[in-house]
Structures are given as structure tokens and as C-alpha cells.
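Exercise 7b. C-alpha cells:
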């Protein structure tokens, strides 16, 4: 009897762990403001559509870094993700980074049970437990691999829970869970490494803030959601 109860408990845990899209069922929009050295330089906004078992997420990201009036770094990106009962089935993005085009075309292959990636940095298969590296999805904090939303490259990662912290964003106080997300391979060149601090509001499973260093101190801050 105890054996069957244990099996049922495991099934419950697995089904609960996979039910991430239900966390966003009522979400229509997530707006994040992008800062560099505490100066607002752009945005990364997500728009959600829900129809039956399909959830579609559209992302528009734009920012520019200027020094003495000259643009030294810029991103302009559009992307669309589709999920069927929490399973990633489609992703497409086009990005201009410093006017250089990058892209990702991804589809789920039902016969292979694999993600098929055609990106500017990687072409091939990926496991279905890979997560698109988007800042709306708290599932990125539980994944072992992420797929670059800009180029399709697959990156192994390690996520560590650092503790709960009180933080203030746009005048609102949160008790947030603080995580460190890093590349599994510490021998990668610095410009290829993942190294992010991420704060999650566990009450609504929204990422509140993402911070990293790259030519300055960067932050993505949750500005609003509905």
C-alpha cells in the first residue's frame, strides 16, 4: 500500500512541475525596463495570448548604449514562442545586434520527441527540457540547459538559490527569492559565459529583476504586468 501511495505522490510532483504555463494563464502583458549603470536605455516587453491549450508569447526588445552621442551597442529583437500544455512547440526570433542579423527557427518534432533548432549559431537537435532564455519564464530557474533566444545556441547552466531578500522596484516592496544562474563550464570565454543574478516573486511566479555585468552594470526590472 505504501508503495502505491509513493508512486502516486511522484506522479503528482511530476505533473505539478510541468504545469508552468498555468502560472501565466491570467497574464496578458509583462513589461520590463532595461537599465545600464542605472540609466534607462530601453525595454523588453512580453504579450500573452491564450487559446484552449495553446499559449503564445510575443516579445519586443529594444535598447541602445550610447557614449558621447555615439551608439556602441544596440539590440532590436522580435520573437514569438508557442506552448501546448507547457510543452514548447515553436519559437522564432529575428534580432539585429549592432546591425548584425541573428535568428532562431525552432519546432518540436513529434516523431523524434526533440526540438529542431535552426539558428544563426546552432543547427541541430535539442532536448525538450531545454528552456528558451527569456526573462518572463520562471522555468529557466529549474532548467539544466537554455537555448539562446538570439542565436539558438544551447548553453548548460547551474542555478543556485541564494536566499530570500527584501527588494524595492518602482517604489513597491517584495520578498523575493534570489538565484544565481551561471554557465556549467567555467572555462568558457567571459563573453560566452552565463552569469546572472535573478530575483523571483514567488507569490505570482514573476521574475522581478535580472542583473549582470557586461560593459557596465545591467538590470532588467519588472515595470508592470497585467
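Sequence design result:
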Amino acid at each position: 500500500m505504501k508503495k502505491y501511495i509513493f508512486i502516486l505522490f511522484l506522479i503528482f510532483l511530476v505533473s505539478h512541475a510541468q504545469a508552468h504555463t498555468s502560472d501565466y494563464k491570467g497574464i496578458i502583458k509583462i513589461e520590463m525596463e532595461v537599465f545600464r549603470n542605472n540609466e534607462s536605455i530601453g525595454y523588453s516587453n512580453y504579450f500573452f495570448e491564450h487559446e484552449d491549450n495553446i499559449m503564445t508569447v510575443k516579445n519586443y526588445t529594444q535598447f541602445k548604449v550610447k557614449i558621447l552621442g555615439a551608439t556602441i551597442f544596440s539590440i532590436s529583437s522580435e520573437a514569438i514562442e508557442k506552448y501546448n500544455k507547457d510543452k514548447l512547440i515553436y519559437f522564432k526570433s529575428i534580432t539585429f545586434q549592432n546591425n548584425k542579423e541573428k535568428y532562431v527557427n525552432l519546432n518540436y518534432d513529434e516523431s523524434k520527441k526533440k526540438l529542431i533548432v535552426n539558428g544563426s549559431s546552432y543547427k541541430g537537435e535539442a532536448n525538450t527540457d531545454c528552456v528558451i532564455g527569456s526573462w518572463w519564464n520562471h522555468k529557466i530557474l529549474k532548467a539544466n540547459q537554455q537555448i539562446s533566444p538570439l542565436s539558438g545556441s544551447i548553453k548548460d547552466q547551474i542555478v543556485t538559490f541564494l536566499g530570500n531578500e527584501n527588494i524595492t522596484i518602482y517604489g513597491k516592496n517584495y520578498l523575493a527569492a534570489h538565484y544565481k544562474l551561471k554557465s556549467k563550464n567555467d572555462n568558457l570565454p567571459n563573453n560566452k559565459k552565463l552569469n546572472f543574478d535573478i530575483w523571483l516573486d514567488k507569490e505570482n511566479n514573476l521574475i522581478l529583476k535580472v542583473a549582470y555585468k557586461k560593459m557596465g552594470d545591467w538590470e532588467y526590472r519588472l515595470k508592470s504586468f497585467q
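Instructor comment: The mean pLDDT is 90. The longest helix spans residues 2-18.
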